[in-house]
Amino acid sequence: MSFTLKTEQVVTELGKIRIVPVLVLNDLTSGLKMCEILAECGLPAAEITFRTQAAESIIRAAAKEFPGLYLGAGTILNTCDLKRAFDAGAKFAVAPGFNPKTVRTAVDSDFAFAPGVCTPSEVEQAMDLGCRFLKFFPAEAAGGTKMLKSIIAPYKHLGVRFMPTGGVTTANVQEYLAIKEVVAVGGTWLGKADDIAAGNWDKIRETVKQAVALKEGK
Ligand SMILES: O=C(O)C(=O)C[C@H](O)[C@H](O)COP(=O)(O)O
Questions:
Q1: Gene3D superfamilies this protein is in (predicted)?
Q2: Domain membership of residue 38 as a residue range
Q3: Measured between alpha carbons, how far is residue 111 from residues 2, 5, 81, 95, 130 in Å?
Q4: Most buried in the list 80, 109, 164, 213, measured by CB within 10 Å?
Q5: What is the CATH number of the domain that holds 49?
Q6: Which of ligand 1's atoms lies nearest the C-alpha of 76?
């Protein structure tokens, strides 16, 4: 059993980027500004969550304006949003939970989709559908790296890969990245909704630069 080519490519790319900002964006202008900061600071990825009306149009515009950014869609809760994300130009999609219908559609259409899991049973259900690229969510609340390592152990030989999110911050990011099966981590700490709304771009820039240093082991 191996990843479909497209998912494998996405896993490889995210494995180079290592930290993916999870963004809740309310309007196109601030969305594009956030993308500009990520591109300029050398953190070329974002998961734009479908928690706002603006998400889809921001992905569409940012994919054109910042072709170097690896853009994904987050909070994809059904097959309709999955299709919207793909059509808008998202290279991958993720969800906080495990919805078999969405997973099946993504696998059938060869679109890289990482459903959220935090139990061995969910890992097995995902793998049964042909999906081995998974979100570990809510990472910290579910037991952090200790829990993740325990979950990985029985499935290591099957090539399962994880993207932990939920409570990941500068304080624990390196601990997660040290786990071989962790492709990348994600988090909202890299662009907090309040800071984006207030236009605190210098503060966001500093946080992003700090994350770049951390992923480089500094
Ligand atoms: O919405 C999704 O698709 C998700 O996978 C969940 C997000 O990754 C977390 O909500 C991020 O959690 P925090 O960084 O603790 O704020």
A1: Aldolase class I (3.20.20.70)
A2: 5-215
A3: 15, 10, 13, 13, 12
A4: 164
A5: 3.20.20.70
A6: 3
Residue 81, pLDDT > 80, answer: yes
User: What is the average per-residue pLDDT within 58-80?
Assistant: 97
Could you tell me the two tokens for 5?
Answer: 């080519």
What pLDDT is attached to residue 10? 95
- Measured by CA distance, the residue closest to atom 10 of ligand 1 is 166
Antiparallel, parallel or unpaired: β 116-117 and 133-136: parallel
- Per residue in 115-150, pLDDT (tens digit) is 999 999 999 999 999 999 999 999 999 999 999 999
What ipTM was predicted for this assembly? Answer: 0.97
Best CA proximity match to 183, nearest among 142, 152, 143:
152
5-50 pLDDT, tens digit per residue, is 789 999 999 999 999 999 999 999 999 999 999 999 999 999 999 9
Closest Cα to atom 11, ligand 1: which residue? 166
Catalytic member of 56, 91, 135, 215: 135
pTM of the model: 0.95
Considering its fold, how many domains does the chain have in total?
A: 1
Q: What is the 3-state secondary structure (H, E, C) of 83-114?
A: HHHHHHCCCEEECCCCCHHHHHHHHHCCCCEE
Across the chain, the runs of DSSP E, i.e. the strands, are 19-23, 45-49, 70-74, 92-94, 113-114, 116-117, 133-136, 161-164, 185-187
Segment 196-215, tens digit of pLDDT = 999 999 999 999 999 999 98
- The amino acid at residue 190 is L
